[in-house]
What does this fold into?
Amino acid sequence: MHTHVWKQIRDREGGRVHANHFANSIKSYRTSQLQLANHKDIVSPHKGAINSLQIDSTEGRYLLSAASDASVAVYDVQRSASAASEAAAAFSKHRCLFVVDKQHRQAHKYAVSTAIWYPIDTGLFVTGSYDHHINVWDTNTTQVVVNFKMPGKVHRTAMSNLSTSHMLIAAGTEDVQVRLCDIASGAFAHTLSGHRDGVMTVEWSNSSEWVLVTGGCDGAIRFWDIRRAGCFQVLDQSQTQFGRRPPILKRSTITKPYHSQDSSTKMRGAQKKHANGSGSRQHPIGRVPSKGPMKQRLHPGMLSTQDRATAHYGAVTGLKATEDGMYLLSAGSDSRLRLWDVQSGCDTLVNFETVRLQINKPLQLATTQDSTLVFVPCMRSVKAFDMWSGNTYTILRGHYECVNCCWFNQQDQELYTGGNDRQILIWSPARSIDGEGPAEDQDSWSS
Amino acid sequence: MGTEEGGHGKGTKVVSLIERATNSTAPEVDPRLLKAIKTVVRYSDSELRVATLTLMDLMKRDHSQVRYLALLIIDELFMRSKLFRTLVVENLDQLLSLSVGFRRNVALPAPPAVASVLRSKAIEFLEKWNVSFGIHYRQLRLGYDYLKNTLRLQFPNIQANVERVQQERRERERRSKEILLSKYESLKENSSSIKGGILSTMDEIDECLDILQAKQECVSDDILDSDEHGDFHSLELQQLRLEALKEGEKVYENSDNTVVFDTLRELYKLLVAKHLISIQEWISVLIRVEVADNRFRDSILKEFIDIRNRLKSVKSKCEEAGCLLVNSSKHDEEDFWEEGNVVSMETSSSAPNNKNKHLDAHENNNDNLGLHSKGSNGSETDGLLHQGHKVESDPKRSKLIAEAPVVRWGSYLDNWGSNRVFMANQRGLELDSHWGRVDADAVIPADKIAELNVHAMPYEEKKIEIQPCLAPLRKGGLCQRRDMKLCPFHGPIIPRDDKGRPLSHSSLEDMNMDLGTDLVEQIAKQAVKNIRERDQEGAKKREIDKQSLKRAKLAKIREHNEAVLRDAAMASTSRSATLGEDGELTNEDKLSAKEKKQSLASMLRKKVTSKDRIAEKLLSSRARVTSDRQHVSSEDAKYREAFPNQW
It folds into this structure.
């Protein structure tokens, strides 16, 4: 490894390599070296399965975990609090900075299914629980500042990293409707209806602050523009394309209408044509409703609710948008992983070699910054797949029960995984120098 | 890299070694094989990799014994090789699930006894590994933590136990040290008083001795004077005289000095019982105690040792002077007990001897009784005594002794020939609340006693030494078989000389004639039997051949099926791939280690007990049907008999 790195550093010194490129190559090299960290332990205070993990996006330092025993904890992954006392130990133990469990007056009653940081700073975090509540917490006082009562168990919450104009928490619950909770007002700002079953996952787009993607137990993945009524796109597993980009022709015919602002008016026009019964062109979104009176009463924006296309057989359990927002990964209870081209809405037909995925819980996937690897919890192991070929890059084994969530720390190139065995494991690039342990690990053959 | 490529060819060596080691029903791995595995693996990383793979494959085998032996090998290598550790730790959860069997859907395979041993051993090993290498391998810590804190498995906790024991020992040592120190402190404070007590006692003893000495001197003087007159010339006599003089110097207790002796004895007792012991104790305390300032300790230790030496010398002086009396009384006691010992020993071991003496005493009074008794001491141990007696006793008696039967010694001899009557209630048992008449003086008449005491003796066969055959062997030497009449190799046993030649021709021929017809018959029988056996073996072999052929065919078919299946599974998962490999491997194993496999397989088979056999017989459908029929027919018969006019 060293010769490789030294050469790059020399190249960088000589100006042959661009700074960005240099950083990226180092990062990707480190990412490719992931293994179970021996120098860092997270001491999990949870007594139940870990359901959600997230590193704050501002400092990349504080890990937020939510567990089934209704507890939420925050850890510092860079400095271990007890370093002074255990300086002699070969590995540092990271105890939680604080834990909100059932002893807390305002704690959740049932399993906490999701916990996310407020994207702007670490002063707030949001938790969603099976007790039908979404709480917004002040990190410093660990008090609830805003509380939302949902109609059912909360499966997943999400906040947009890009948003500059709204503070909306998207919440997927047992209910068919996706609700957007406004922290500023403390009320529901939107109710997005379209799914025919509970919503397992929600994910904000990485390219537009207005676009929300939701995956439901009905197997549908819906794209919503929160400024408009109804969803504007439903992914269909039967619409496929081979490779990363669709052919130019197809793209122009199919995906053009939904892009610019004026395309929406066009669509409405087309919809009207349909309503008049004169449209002969196959509409890409809605299947043509056959009965007259029903469609006439529908608001044009709600027409997409008629679209029954599915992205997976069974429920959609996990969604992850790539960093550039161009592609979307989805995991389903059919043990399939699909990579969708957001632009065309087509399955790119990448065959990920998954074996089995957990089906009854929402899964949290993770991608590296440059979107080359995707980490997927596959039962007891976490598999790293090459995003574009679907080949298994490496299998990370360490958990003794099913893994529920993983999070990739872009800053330190570390992966955090949490599972039903109550452990939070750190996977970090191999350390070359760690010879300061109390006793060196060596061969000990007799005689 | 290059070595690894080359290693594949060599890898088979360690594979075959491991397979041989695990192909056994023994509870441990053959140490020689284990050593061979270790040496092979030690010098070649590629072999080690192959070994790891093989062992993990063996852990997947559907037989707890194989897994158990594989686990033992894994432990051996794990404790030694770093590379092996890193390789095993990668798949630790799999290894644990295969050895501990903690997953509900992956239970441990068949022989349940071995499975439980495997499980406990695996847990023990995991703990050991965690203690020694946990700090280097997060996976070990994780696995240990999971089994302990999540599954709550019971770990033997060896390390903690050892630590606890050590802690206890340290605690005990600390406490004893404290006690020593406190003793030392107290000694520091009152050492002078202790010393004073001892010294005063010693002074008193000295005074007593002086008094005695003084008295003696005046007496001994005139003894010496009188001795002067005698003439002792020779050297021996001189010596005798000196000894006598010495003896004379000793003070003897008499009415004059009895008071002094009493005091001396008292003081001596005090000295031995108290001071000597206490000073020994103090010395040991001083030796063991650890203090910062050694000067005081050393000086006082020196003093104490001096005192002890003085004490000893004083003690010996006392003993010389006559406190031996105290001692001698003690000796008397000991002697008494010793005597008792001797008696008991005699009664136990050489009782016949004793008996004999007794009877000899009786002999003079009652000749008749003596005769009986002589008969009784028949045991050969008394041979010598007999000889001695024979000389003095009359010829009639010796004649009688010659024809008297030899009787074993026993308790019944105590009242041999006595015609005493015995009390029925000999021990004076009180029979309270007995409603019947109680005769306290009831006696058992002598003839009844004799009847009760009739001695039974087992018949002892005379021992005959069976002569060895002694026929000359082809490789030299003589046949050492001992048979009564007929050696199976050399025919009838006849007297032979030291080279194995028969002594008398005629007898041999006779025997031959006798046995001739027999031999012919036997040989014929043997021949028939041999032929039959050979036939049977041939048949068996043919059958085995047929079976192996069949098996080979089946294996081929299975392989083909697997290949087809694998091809068919386009979306092949890694699991299915390993499944196929697994099957192949077991097939190979079967071929390579067939005869041993059977023993392993036999462990899996359920033992058929007699109960099972009976159950099989009784519960078979045929037996049930017949019993039913019998039941019905007997019922019919009964009915017909009861109501003869109704059928």
Observations:
- Chain B has a mean pLDDT of 75.
- The first strand of chain B starts at residue 422 and ends at 423.
- Strands of chain B lie at 422-423, 443-444, 486-487, 491-492.
